[in-house]
Structure formats: structure tokens, C-alpha cells
């Protein structure tokens, strides 16, 4: 029986990811002591977002950078967990987008969007902004159902001079 | 009248005040730190001074931030939630912005909940660009350099990382 069936995980982002990297991801996912580690990472990310503990910030950035680079499966797991905070899940999405390959990005975005959480969508958008993927940002501006997402996409493009923005313009 | 609350990274709950968990999520961004004594800092917004306020706030930080988020909050939110916000002297700040430093009294947790309720209602009526600004590292450096040219910062010892940016 597969890990996903055994744990009753359906419609998971992992299904998308596994299409890209089937073996490595599954092995890591099975062997780690998940919940403790995920809570720990989530706490680090929350401090990066809120800056409530400035003394720890550098260490938290370093730790999350390391996780994003060498153990990104933890980020996928946090996104897949609806009990985790939405802003933290959104930050995980941002980091995954930043490190994604062009060839896997559409699949990744589709999996992330399946979570139906606006802060994950904002995470995607800001990840795309960081890697200057203006085509996909334009797609968000043209097609996304959330007006705030469309407006933010428009402003990112306007700041980068990728689109002419009229201050009076509003989106309905 | 508006107040600025400085925050860290994105995405934050302020990007979508209509989020179903907005109040729970946003609470973490206002809970007073130990050094706040129940009264976290806000800065009175003034369009012509906001770059100075931002530079002043950033330059008293121990380390260079990677990003800096500014959330503009209407005074009406404080009034409606009956949260007292009052001027607070701060010896750490430059005199040119010291008059803009305020503290809100969130020592009563119920008041913070009420504040978040009215904040949600208030932000829902606005576009993100009307109450949110995010500066990235390079923009932060430019603001510091720009403000340093026109403001005498010698009155307060600058952090080493600020000096490195200004004179590198």
C-alpha cells in the first residue's frame, strides 16, 4: 500500500511533486519524524514573518535557507497540512517557487493552487516576483479570481515597468 | 490620520484581510514583546516624512533587514476598538522623527481582539496598495542613503551595518 493511501492523504501536492521526482521525495517523506520537525520549522518561519524575536532572526533565516536547499520535502509537508498557519504555508510556497525549475513550475503552481488558500497564492506571487517570472505574474493578473491577487500582480508588473499602470485604474 | 506598523516578511495576513483566519493570524503581528510592556510601537504617518520614519526605524535595528513591510492603519480603528494610542518618548530615535513615535495599549488581550476585528473591517474596504508597502533589501539601502544625505544622523550612534551601507 502506498504511503498516501495508508495515511489517507488525497489530492496532495505530493502527487504533483512525485511526478517530477518520484523516488527521492517518497523516501524522505517516509523516514522523517514529521510533526516535531514541521512545528520547529513553522516556528522559525513565523519569526521570519513577524520578527517578534529579532535576536533569533539571522539563525532562523539560515535554518530555513538550509531546509529550503537540502530538505524541501518539509516545506511541501507544511503546505499539505491544513492545520498549519496560512502565512507560514504561504512562505513555504514562496521558497519552493524561488527554487523551482522552469520546467516544473506550472505543475508546482497547480498543486499549490489546489490548496485554495489566498496566502499560499500570495506566496506563489511573491516567489515569482523574486525570480522575475513576469509571464506567470501576468497570467495571475489576467486570470486569477481573487481581486487582491490580481491587483498585487498588476503592481508588481507596474513597478518592473512590464505593464503600463494608470493610477486611476481599478479592477472590478 | 494614520499610523504605521512595521513588520517583517511576506506573505502576511495583511495581504488578504478577507482571509477566514485573518484575526487569528494577524494577532501574532501585534502581540507585545517583553520589552514593549504591553504597548507595541506605531509611528504616526506623514506623507512627507514617511521615508525618514522608515529610515529611522530601520537604522536602530541591530541587523540589516532583508525586507521591511509597512502597514498603514487608520486612527479610526483605534477609536472604534477603544485602544488607547499615545505619544511615547524614545531616546533611541533621531529627534527628527521622535515626535512620530506612539505606543498602543494592548495589555488587555480583549482590546487586541477588538482592534483586530475593526482592522479587518477597515482593510477589507481598501486595495492592498493603499495600506501596504514592502521594501526589499536594495530599496532599504537606497532609502537609508537618500535620508542620510538630508538628515543629520550624528546625534545617535549608527549601527555598524548602517555605516557600512552608507559609506560603502
Q: Can you walk me through this structure?
A:
The complex is a heterodimer of chains A (172) and B (168). By secondary structure, chain A is mainly alpha-helical. Chain A has helices at residues 3-6, 13-20, 22-31, 34-50, 57-70, 73-80, 86-99, 102-113, 118-130, 134-143, 147-159. The model of chain A is unreliable at 1-11 and 14-28 (pLDDT under 50). In chain B, 38% of the residues lie in helices and 18% in strands. Chain B has helices spanning 22-27, 50-59, 75-80, 95-98, 109-124, 137-150, 160-167; strands at residues 2-7, 41-44, 67-74, 85-87, 101-104, 132-136. The model of chain B has no long low-confidence stretch (mean pLDDT 91). Chain A binds chain B through residues 46, 48-55, 57-58, 61, 85-87, 90-91, 94, 118-119, 122-123, 125-126, 146, 148, 151-152, 155, 170, and chain B through 7-13, 15-16, 18-19, 21, 25, 28-29, 31, 33, 61-63, 65-66, 127-129.
Q: How would you summarize the topology of this molecule?
A:
The complex is a heterodimer of chains A (172) and B (168).
Chain A (H helix, E strand, L loop, with lengths): L2 H4 L6 H8 L1 H10 L2 H17 L6 H14 L2 H8 L5 H14 L2 H12 L4 H13 L3 H10 L3 H13 L13
Chain B lengths: L1 E6 L14 H6 L13 E4 L5 H10 L7 E8 H6 L4 E3 L7 H4 L2 E4 L4 H16 L7 E5 H14 L9 H8 L1
Helix pairs in contact in B: 2-6
